[in-house]
Description:
A hairpin with a 5-residue loop joins strand 11 (about 160-170) and strand 12. The protein has helices at about 1-30, 70-75, 150, and strands at about 30, 45-50, 65, 80-85, 90-95, 100, 110-115, 130, 135-140, 155, 160-170, 175, 180-185. About 20% of the residues lie in helices and about 30% in strands. The protein has about 190 residues and is of the alpha+beta class. The N and C termini lie far apart (about 80 Å).
Amino acid sequence: MRRVLAASGIAAGVAAFVALVLVVAALAFSVTVEGTSMEPTLRDGDRMFLEFWTRDEIERFDVVEADAPSSVSGGDARILKRVIGMPGDRVSVSRDARVLIRPAGEGEIYVVENPAWSAEAGAGQEWVTVPEGAYWLLGDNWNASTDSRSFGFVEADAVHGRVVFRMLPLGRNGAVAQDVRLALVEPGSAR
Length: 191
């Protein structure tokens, strides 16, 4: 009986230690959302788990944490934004919140369908090509995001990883919504 109790005590101690290590690791590899630039996807104060080991596996529409360009932050702030343009892509942002993409190596033009964007006036621009080793990032809150529309490309080396899981608040915890997609633009309708 003593051996069973001793073994149970050791097992409980090991389980408590493992749980503590997991909590500390989760907090150490997490970021807190500051501001409203990613609403409604991410909200101010959300605690997000950062997959730092995936920084070399970034894909279109991933939400990433990156160093803000020095022109925006003085060089020490971090931002959470959605990857819209990959290296080699051609990107155009129209005045009516319409983002067009011509993926690298493709002839077709696609419109980015993001349910979080409204069709309110935004900054217009011509087509730009995303350089190798860089991304074009946009916030989900079209009218309250400082993003690549104002500061341009973000170097891949400035990306710290993907943000894929909301840890807190507990009532909203879970995977980050991935409801953004590309839709083929009919020939002649691209501006």
